[in-house]
Amino acid sequence: MGSEAGGGRAERRRLARRVKRRRRTRRVGELPLLVIVALCIALVLKTFLVQAFFIPSGSMEQTIRIGDRVLVDKLTPWFGSKVERGDVVVFKDPGGWLRGETARTAPDPVVVKQIKQTLTFIGLLPSADEQDLIKRVIGVGGDTVVCCDAQGRVTVNGSPLDEPYVNPGNTPSDIRFEVTVPKGRLFVMGDHRANSADSRFHLDEAFAGTISEEGVVGEAVVIAWPFGHWRRLETPATFRMVPDQARTGRRGPGRRRRGTPFA
């Protein structure tokens, strides 16, 4: 009886070991499939929902600093939502805006480069060669944006903007202008007004320095990295005070410019 009981226990142990081996083998076999599924999900997120972008310049300081990574909402425009005043948006270079802004970096080792390329492809890292810019929307189609009123403030449709987000020490603008934004276009400015070659520096070009809504990649909603800079990018309250119609007579897209361009 004792030998039979001992044999039964040994057989059960063998069966248990066999079951464990099968489970391990199944898990190992499922791993490539799980990796593929994860990559597909990440790729869908990058393409349609959210994407990380690297900030290479100081044109949005102190709101967004050099080296910050921001997450950009790419989903909302698919549902027909329009860009609003005060939004921080990433957009494609309209042509020549990026000239001279690309920083040189030391080349990575081959293995590191391959890992970065993979993470960039699936959207977990921003591309190093992006041809995109990030600015704040000041005026949308139909708005009249003016610099400046008697107190030195930028106005939109006659309503002065209270701009605490402007980099300390900067004036709202050293360049005077008056622009009526064409339909389907946006007038954008960086928060570091003394270091942002934005719509003000393209006033003598077509559409008076405004960018097309179609060129907008999405709205920057969160500073995701570094963790010490993490925060949501909220629309400033001052833009809620702006009326939809200009109080003064409408004019065609135009310009009045004064000042020296910044580097």
In a few lines, what is going on in this structure?
Helix content is about 25%, strand content about 20%. It has about 260 residues and is α+β, with helices and mostly antiparallel strands.
Descriptive terms for the model:
263 residues, alpha+beta, Umud Fragment, subunit A, eight-stranded antiparallel sheet, 2 helices, 21% strand, disordered C terminus
3D structure, described in words:
The protein is α+β, with helices and mostly antiparallel strands. It has one domain (49-241): Umud Fragment, subunit A (Ribbon). Helices cover 23% and strands 21% of the residues. The chain has helices at 2-49, 110-121, and strands spanning 50-54, 69-73, 88-92, 132-139, 144-147, 154-156, 159-160, 177-180, 185-189, 211-212, 216-225, 231-232. The strands form 2 sheets. Strands 1, 2, 3, 4, 9, 10, 11 and 12 form an 8-stranded antiparallel beta sheet that branches. Strands 7-6-5-8 form a 4-stranded antiparallel beta sheet, with no helix packed on it. A hairpin with a 2-residue loop joins strand 6 (154-156) and strand 7 (159-160). The longest helix has 48 residues, at 2-49. It is elongated, with a radius of gyration of 27 Å.
